[in-house]
Every structure is written in C-alpha cells, then in structure tokens.
Amino acid sequence: MDAQQLTRELVAFESPSHVSNREISQFVEDRLRALHFDIELVEYTDEQGVAKVNVVGRRGSEGDGRGLAYFCHSDVVPAETWTGPGVPFEATQQDGRLYGRDSCDMKGSAACMLTAIDRLGEATLQEPLFFVCTADEEVSYTGAKHFAAA
Q1: Residue 143: is it exposed, middle or buried by C-beta count within 10 angstroms (0-12/13-18/19+)?
Q2: For residues 28 and 26, what is the distance between their CA atoms, to the nearest angstrom?
Q3: Which of 15, 95, 28 is nearest to 56 (CA)?
Q4: From CA 67, how far away is CA 149, in angstroms rounded?
Q5: Which residue in 75, 102, 136, 138 is the catalytic one?
Q6: How many Å apart are CA 42 and CA 34, to the nearest integer?
Q7: pLDDT in tens, 36-46
Q8: Is pLDDT larger for residue 68 or for residue 84?
Q9: Residue 40 annotated to the active site
C-alpha cells in the first residue's frame, strides 16, 4: 500500500459535509477489512435528511479497555473557495507537496495510518488497534456524537 496513492484516492471522493459520505465510508471499510479489522458501522441521518456513516474498525482482541485508537473524519469543507493548485478533488503534486481538498486534514493522515497498519502485516498485537472515521466533523462533530452515543 502506498500512502501517496491512497491519499489521491481518498481526495477524489467529493465528501463535503452537506452530502452523504457513504461512498468514502465504504472505501475505508473495504480497506480496513482487507487489513483484518472487525467493522461496526454507526449510521444516522443528519438534520438535513442526508444519510451519514461512521466507520469503526477494531483489530485484535477486546483486551481490558486499553489499546491504540486513531480518529479521523471523512467530510470536508465545501470546495467553492478552493485556492490551491489544480482542482479540489484531484490531488495535484507541486514542489514535492500533494494538494487537494483535505489532503492534510484528514485524508492524507488516514492514508498514512492505513499504510502504517498495512506494514504491520500479520503482527500479533498485545492490545487492540482501533480506526475510527466519523462524519460531520467539519459542521458540529455530529458523527462523533453519534459514535459516542452508540
């Protein structure tokens, strides 16, 4: 798995907060399943009637409540104000940097974490590893609130 290519793939999902994040959530779920994570989906409908999905992955045994958790989000701010090079939902490399809507916060970070997990291979974990990807972080943390309630 290549973090830069995975970032490009994630940036390509047009996932501003006002639309459903089902497609990008399915992509993240598929990647986590390939990395041997057990998955739980926390689905809800936002105040505008848009379907949203939080993806919660766990690899390793439940343990005693300890472990490592990585949290990210799948939504982005609207792209109408895009000022970077290229177009917002197509990652563009310039001067050794990758530009695209959410390439730093959070799609690039998620790609790096997924790549790091892939490099662990079949390593046995002493404590569980969690990967949590919520919706609506950019507009009130609604996804995180649904995750916490579930």
Answers
A1: buried
A2: 5
A3: 28
A4: 20
A5: 75
A6: 20
A7: 999 999 999 99
A8: 68
A9: no
Whether 64 has a pLDDT exceeding 80, the answer reads no
Residue 38 is among the residues annotated as catalytic for this protein: no
Which of the two residues, 39 and 78, has the higher pLDDT score?
A: 39
Residue position matching structure tokens 């001067």 = 95
Per-residue pLDDT reduced to its tens digit, 85-133: 888 899 999 998 999 888 988 999 999 999 999 999 988 888 999 999 9
* Whole-angstrom distance, CA of residue 133 vs CA of residue 119: 20
Q: Any idea how long the chain is?
A: 150
Q: What is the pTM of this model?
A: 0.93
Give the active site residue among 46, 102, 136, 137. 137
Q: Please check the confidence at residue 63 and state whether its pLDDT lies above 70.
A: no
Cα three-residue angle 16-7-79, rounded to 5 degrees? 25
